[in-house]
Structure formats: structure tokens, C-alpha cells
Amino acid sequence: MADSEGSRADTHADNGSSSAPKKQAFIPLGKHQTHLFYNITTANPLSNTENNPEVMTSLVQKLGLSSSLAFHDVYSIDEPSLLEFVPRPVHALLLVFPVTTTYENSRRTEDGPLPEYSASGSGEEVIWFRQTIRNACGMIGLLHSACNGGARAMIAPSTDLATLVDKALPLDPTARAELIESSPSIARAHASAAAQGDTAAPAADEKIDLHFVAFVKSAENNLWELDGRRKGPLNRGKLGDDDDVLAEKALDLGVRRFLKRETEGEGDELRFSLVALAPSMD
């Protein structure tokens, strides 16, 4: 397996070698405060784990995203009355799920024949960040959500997020990953978010089995799955001009497809969480 595959795999688990170089690690966002796990096809919560899209909103707004956008819980992807609670248009969906054997096998199978993503520049349909920092999948998911689609135009100029996008656009994925690793503003924002919430944050080197994947719509009306552990961004299909990422077609191509694969592989007891980046209700 290629070295780049190894670097992706160990963002959730150590390789067990005491001689391996020490990698940078973030305090996890996902375990202690970011999401309430529930079966996403129903409205019934299955766990009391703290759910806090406000923390994610605070993080991206501190970095420079407009206060007119915020993250919101999505309590169902099938029940119209619950979907009505989500403001529209939805610019990004952030899916959080436990890392399973099905996910790992599917990732390796789909990525196997694909080339390593190497695009860069203003002609790039989406901006994709490779995850190389341990426990940073929450931050990478937030960056994918805020830096793509309609949300990118709502980044305030001369802010940390605007500077990050400007610096990242001309870089290849390896250089972009190094940019994230060396960014003090990203590290500060992540540490601040991890310290929020009512429960204690775990240690930065604690093994976390949650992962974040973002779904965004490009200007070309394609739905993209953005996962920092993959070989690159994944085009999941064409959307209509008026479709946002919570539209029926987008859900079928993205979140529902993802969950169908997981439940077929792991059974009906898997739990997921979903938040939407959409207009603020304040």
C-alpha cells in the first residue's frame, strides 16, 4: 500500500511502532461534545452524548465565515416535517459516523484504482484537504464545508479563513496538508472549540473511532463527497440548478447512499449524526 494510504489510515489509529515518527495530534472534536448519535432515519435519540452544532458554528465564524451562516442539526433525512426545521439553502452536510469495517473496506476498494488527487488552482471544482493530523477529521470536515460551494463566497475578506483559502488554492494536496499542520490560527480555533461544551475533552492522543465526511455542491452542480482520508474528492453525481445538498436527489446520491452501504454491511444498529451548514436563524 502506498505511503499516502498509510498516512491517511493512521489519522484514527496508531501503527503500533514505537520507532514511528511522532505525528501532530488535535484534541478530538467528535467524542465529547460535537454530536448526538441517533438513527438518522428516525427522530428518536439513542444516546445522551452531547450535541453541539453551536460549537462548530463558533469555530468557523471565528475563522472568518459570515455570521449569516450556521450549523444546524438534521433530525431526519426522510421525514418532511423534520426536514422543514432546517433553513434553506443548505450549503454543506457534515456526516459523522463510527469508523467501521464496512467503511474501511469500501474506502480501500473504491480508492484502489483511483490516482492520487493532484489538482490545484482556481480551476479546481472543489478545494480538498488531505488529513494528516491525528484527530483532525472534525476540523477538516468543517473546512471542507466552509471553503466550498456557496459558503466560500460568504467568507469575510482578510480573515484567517480567507487567508487559508488564498494560500491553499495554488498548492497541491501535500502542500495544503502542510499548510494546515503549520497554521497557528487553525490550531487555536480547534483547541478553543475542543474546550467548549459541558463534558471534558479527551486527550489529543486518545483513540477516537468517529469520522467526519462533508457533502457540498459545486458551481458546476456536482455533488462532492469530501473526506480527508480518501485519495481525493469524490464526484457523486449531477444535481439540478435549484437543488441544494439537502434536496432529495442530493440525499440519494450522498448521505442515503452512504448509510445504505453501512447498514447493509454492519446491520441496523449503526448510529450516525448529520448537521447542515445553512442560513443562521439569529
Provide a brief overview of the structure:
By secondary structure, the chain is of the alpha+beta class. It is built from twelve helices and six strands. β3 and β4 form a beta hairpin.
Percent of residues in β-strands: 5-15%
Q: How many helices in DSSP terms?
A: 12
Low-pLDDT segments? 1-10, 13-23, 26-51
Q: Span between N and C termini?
A: 48 Å
Q: What is the alpha-carbon Rg in Å?
A: 17 Å
Strand order of the largest sheet: 1-6-2-3-4-5
Element order, helices and strands?
HHHEHEHHHHHHEEEHHE
Briefly note the structural class of the backbone. alpha+beta
What is the total tally of β strands? 6
List the topology elements.
Elements: H1 3-9, H2 30-34, H3 53-63, E1 69-73, H4 80-83, E2 92-98, H5 101-111, H6 137-146, H7 149-152, H8 160-168, H9 173-181, H10 184-195, E3 210-217, E4 222-226, E5 234-238, H11 248-253, H12 255-266, E6 273-279
Antiparallel strand pairs: 1-6, 2-3, 2-6, 3-4, 4-5
Helix pairs in contact: 3-10
Structure description:
- This protein is α+β, with helices and mostly antiparallel strands.
- The chain contains 12 helices and 6 strands.
- The protein has helices spanning 3-9, 30-34, 53-63, 80-83, 101-111, 137-146, 149-152, 160-168, 173-181, 184-195, 248-253, 255-266; strands at residues 69-73, 92-98, 210-217, 222-226, 234-238, 273-279.
- A 6-stranded antiparallel β-sheet has the order 1-6-2-3-4-5.
- Strand 3 (210-217) and strand 4 form a beta hairpin.
- Helix 3 packs antiparallel against helix 10 (184-195).
- The chain is globular, with a radius of gyration of 17 Å.
- The model is unreliable at 1-10, 13-23 and 26-51 (pLDDT under 50).
